[in-house]
Every structure is written in C-alpha cells, then in structure tokens.
Structure to design on (332 residues):
C-alpha cells in the first residue's frame, strides 16, 4: 500500500451524544446527564421504538427487515432508528450486502438506571474509562503483510516486523497485520476497594486485504488476561470512499474505515455489541482488581477458518474518533 496523490479530507460530523455503554446509569444530581435523559425519554416514548428494542434483543437486523416486522415504511423505520441511535440504545452501521450496502442495527444497552433521589446508604457505583493509543502495545507476534502509519507518513517500512519495535510506533494511527497477536496492557489501580461489575473494550477494526475488499472475512479473537473471550468474523476490509477521519494523503485505494466493535463482560457472560455470545465465562472468572494490569489481546489464530488479517484504527483514521477504550463499572 503506497500513497500516490493528495486528496481533500472530509470533515467528520460529531454525534449528538457520547457513546453509551451496555449499562446506562444517569442521575438528576448530575446536570451533564440532562441531555442524555432527554434523548432517552424521547427514544422510549413510542411503542414502535420499544418494539424495535425488543426485536434487537438477541439479533442484529437491517432496516428493511425491521420495517417488514413492524409493517411500516422503510423511511419511517429509519426515523425511529435515528432516535434510538442518538440515545445510545442501539448502533447502526453500514455493511456490504448482496445488493449493495445495508444499515445493520444492533442493541447497545441492556439496562437503564435513573437515580432521582440518591440515598447516602446506597452502594457506591463508579465508572472508569482508559483511552489507549493503538501504538502503545506491550507485546506482539505478527506475520506480514504488516505495517503502521501515523497522521503524516508510514512508520519505518511495510511488511517488516522489525518496524514494530520502533520508538515511533507510539504515534501509530493505523496498524495492520495478517496473522499473530498484539497485546495492550491497561492500568487497574482504580480498582482498589472496588469490585468490577462490567468491563468492555471498544475499538474500530476491519480485515486486511490487498488494497481493500469489502468481502474479505477474517476471524478475530479477543483475550482478557490470556483467557479467550470470543471470536468475531470481520466481514471485510473497507474502502471505496475516504474514511471520515482518514488523512488526505492516505489514498482511496487503501483501507479507509472499519466497524466499531465492543466486547463486553459482566456476570451474565461475554457480549459483542451488547448481544450475549457465551455464558461459559463471566466477570467473576477474573480477579481484575488484584492483577498488576489488565491485558487485552487481539489475535488472528494460525488455525482460524478465515485468516483475513486485521486493521486497527486510531482516533485519526477511519470513521470513529477514538483509540482502544476500556470501560469499567464498579461497586464497593
């Protein structure tokens, strides 16, 4: 992948509300929660939108499928989807389909807690988020094709694993490799005297193909403290248009954007984008508070059915202005 021309970068639009995790907790004691409360109230004030939330409980559906289930026009369905997405209750992402792109909707929230009159005797619940730049990995073992770029240029050379040892790696905004793993270690000092009830990792990613190919499946496996959580099959390596945040120098023939995925873990089990995937392990499997760190590993296994590689996006490439974000809810 080699840049050949400079193109103007499109300005990305900011969403009207911050991304909300699987567990939504809002309080009248916090004025910053008033706008999310207003959006939630509007989103939940329609029986049709409540039916959409019910339909998305256990599976993802595109807008046409939802319109058919609801027996309403596709345009009306899209209106309701936008309100639910603004409130952080669902995600809606464009994915390649048989007849072109389709907007696929998934549940994002499992429960909502609204505190009106907090009691001083209630259990103290706190939330923590850590933003990890994608170049701040701790360990790796990868195979070409591979490479890294920052906002202005390639970092060292492509398809040379030695480049991943460069101190300049900390500026990486897009990382790709074909097989192997990359590991990030997050701090956990804030868990002293607290017990985690939920942990999630959110990142933008896609497969890694020559140039880009919208249909290029890749089995991506995620680990927490070296215990396998789940495997997600990325549908493709996305291009065809410039990523909303991707710098102009990165040409359109290259990978441009990915999908925002959230891997979550609570007492029920492991979820992907709010949909429960396995109950075999849960958050009680891990002693996160007493480990020296929290390890999050992303891998393409040697024996994967689809070894289609991976692209990991930082906050300056792709469609989503974020790095890898770890979120933890706790109680004491």
């Amino acid at each position: 992948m080699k840049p050949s021309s400079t193109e103007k970068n499109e300005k990305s639009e900011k969403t009207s509300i911050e991304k909300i995790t699987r567990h939504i907790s809002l309080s009248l004691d916090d004025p910053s929660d008033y706008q999310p409360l207003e959006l939630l109230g509007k989103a939940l004030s329609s029986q049709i939108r409540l039916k959409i939330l019910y339909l998305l409980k256990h599976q993802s559906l595109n807008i046409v499928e939802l319109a058919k289930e609801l027996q309403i026009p596709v345009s009306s369905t899209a209106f309701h989807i936008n309100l639910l997405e603004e409130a952080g209750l669902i995600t809606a992402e464009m994915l390649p389909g048989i007849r072109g792109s389709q907007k696929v909707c998934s549940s994002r929230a499992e429960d909502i807690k609204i505190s009106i009159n907090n009691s001083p005797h209630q259990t103290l619940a706190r939330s923590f988020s850590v933003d990890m730049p994608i170049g701040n990995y701790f360990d790796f073992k990868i195979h070409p094709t591979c490479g890294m770029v920052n906002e202005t240029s390639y970092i060292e050379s492509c398809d040379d694993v030695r480049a991943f040892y460069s101190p300049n790696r900390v500026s990486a905004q897009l990382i790709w490799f074909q097989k192997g793993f990359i590991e990030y270690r997050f701090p956990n000092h804030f868990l002293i005297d607290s017990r985690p009830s939920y942990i999630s990792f959110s990142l933008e990613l896609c497969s890694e193909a020559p140039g880009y190919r919208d249909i290029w499946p890749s089995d991506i496996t995620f680990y927490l403290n070296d215990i396998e959580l789940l495997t997600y099959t990325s549908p493709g390596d996305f291009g065809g248009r410039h990523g909303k945040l991707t710098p102009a120098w990165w040409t359109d023939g290259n990978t441009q954007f990915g999908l925002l995925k959230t891997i979550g873990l609570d007492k029920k089990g492991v979820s992907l984008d709010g949909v429960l995937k396995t109950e075999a392990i849960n958050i009680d499997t891990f002693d996160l508070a007493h480990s020296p760190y929290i390890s999050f590993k992303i891998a393409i296994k040697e024996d994967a059915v689809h070894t289609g590689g991976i692209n990991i996006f930082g906050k300056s490439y792709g469609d989503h202005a974020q790095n890898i974000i770890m979120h933890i809810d706790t109680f004491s």
Q: What stands out?
A: The chain has two domains: 23-115, 125-331. Residues 23-115 form a domain with the Arc Repressor Mutant, subunit A fold (CATH 1.10.10.10). Helices lie at 34-43, 47-55, 63-70, 74-86.
